[in-house]
Amino acid sequence: MTTAALLAVYAVAILAAGGAQLAAGFAAAGTAHPPNARERRLVVGLVTGAALAVLVATLAALLLAARGWWFAGEKLLVALPFTAVGVGCAIVGLVRWRREPVAPGPRVLLLGGGLAVTAGAVASWIIGYPPSPVATALLAVLVLLGTGLAWAVLARRGRRAIAGFAGIAAIVLAGSIGWVWLADTAPPSIEASAAHAHADGEPGADPDDSEGGAGGEASAVVSVDELRTPDTVDAPVLGIELVAAHREFTLSSGTEVEAWSFGDRLPGPEIRVTEGDLVEATLRNRDIDDGVTLHWHGVDVPNGEDGVAGVTQDAVMPGGEFVSRFVADTAGTYWYHTHQVSSEGVRRGLYGMLVVEPVGGVAEAVDLAVPVHTIGGAVLLGGDDGEQVQVVEPGTAVRLRVANTDRTPLRVAVGGAPFRVVAVDGRDLAGGREVTGESVRLGAGARADLVFDMPDGEVRFGVDASDDSALVFRPRAGVVPAAASAGPVASALAPAELPELDLLDYGRPSATPGEVPAEFGEVTATAELVLDRMPRFVGGAPNYAYTVKRRVFPHIEPIEVDEGDVVRLTIANRGFEVHPMHVHGHHVLVLSRDGEPARGAPLWLDTVDVRPGEVWEVLLVADNPGIWMDHCHDLEHAAAGMMMSLAYRGVVTPFEHDAHGNRPE
Fold first, then answer.
1. Using 50, 70 and 90 to split pLDDT, how confident is the model at 277?
2. CA geometry: angle at 229 spanning 227 and 235, to 5°?
3. How far apart are CA 74 and CA 70, in angstroms?
């Protein structure tokens, strides 16, 4: 059974236990007279069912512990002790209730047991991982106060006793909610702790006044706005202007789309440069009231060019502009998008493709950038929806640079010809076999380069997001019958129905699977990202939020590193939704997934697609100083809390995430 299935079993069992035990308590509490046989059977059945459900939940929790303590910590340390006490009280109360059905004592025990089991049932959603002693204590106090209130009512202790227990419980509950709300008003946790110590100092302060980083050596404080591309860089310059504005487009299907875009087309202009070129992009905002920025997704730019509002710059408001400069030093497929209110801005069209070609050009004669995006109900492949036909001479090599610019996972496939995956997230994959009859999954924000040789028959590139939108390649000599085409029948392509290619077992390995490559030396730092969903305040408002280690942005403690650190990062998904975790300014090397080492070609990703119940181990080399966002690229999840920072010690930011209209999600 998968970890996600075990999490579901535990959730159903523990909630059923809480509901049954609480129902038994209320049923018994209503017996002001000796119960009849039917009422007795009901209470006995509910208590028995609750005990059995707790047993199932306990077994599921123990099995989850074997998958990783992230999945079972609060279940074994908090929830199950609560439920054990609750079931114990309920059984004692049941035995006494059958002899003294109208006495208050047995009924209080049954109700108190129901409250305890219910508290255990909600512990995973309220407390989460790692378990909080304070939250656990407050939950226990509420159970005791609720039990006391039941006693005051059933024993008829009078209004003062009832009001006393109810009032104290209300105060504790309100205080708990207020405490959580106050936590959301605390100063943000974005900079590293050593940087906080110098936040009042000037950037570039005297090293003698700075606290030591790794190895206890002193280091100067630097501001993110100093970490920019020097004016002295000597490289060919590609200047480009991007104007963000409201625009309307009519697609080939006739669909009319009201969009925000970076130019007079959707998506924004494709930027294609040669490795080593200096990109100089001037962003202007014509009328996007919420503001815009330019984030270069997957490009390891200097921190000051990263385009995150409130962290590396202020948002560009209407009438404003910002010039971003960086050397495109690594060939590959990338994309750009706003990082100001990006959950809305990207969805509405503020994105485009960036292609960095190697010196000497690409090997393929046909090289297409294909962002896949849903807008106005239409699925765009590149700049249009529907079926797009292109004539390609047989024998021609074709490269499709596919980018998932949506918020949900995407499966893509090529029908009519075998293909190879030659790059993922802008990094080459060596030695990949030819793929036939399999799909490639791309998490939100991810890219893959697919290469095929044009046959004498039709080739179709399709996505699981749409049956209608596709790229169709036809030979000049005419289309031969589908049966003569290589691979699956092109016209019958259905990516959602094809088995999924496992990229962790694809290509030629270059090192011992799952081990840190020798060239990186020893691991010098470790960090954990435990992904979940629970009630929290986000931006001062209650939200069923997306959390990392129980907290939400901007209060998640950053991953703190020194330049040169080799970081082993563990990402565990406790929830029931996919979280494509994207780290800015770096790529990570995949070591393992669910304990199974990566056995294919070295897989360097900037977006790790973590499915429910999965645990990924990746390696990050801290070689790009700054304060970098690390967030879920389902951008609605980021907006609801799942965003944090990778912070280098000694780096500070003068920008504020909630000032000047900045909203970095």
1. very high
2. 165
3. 9
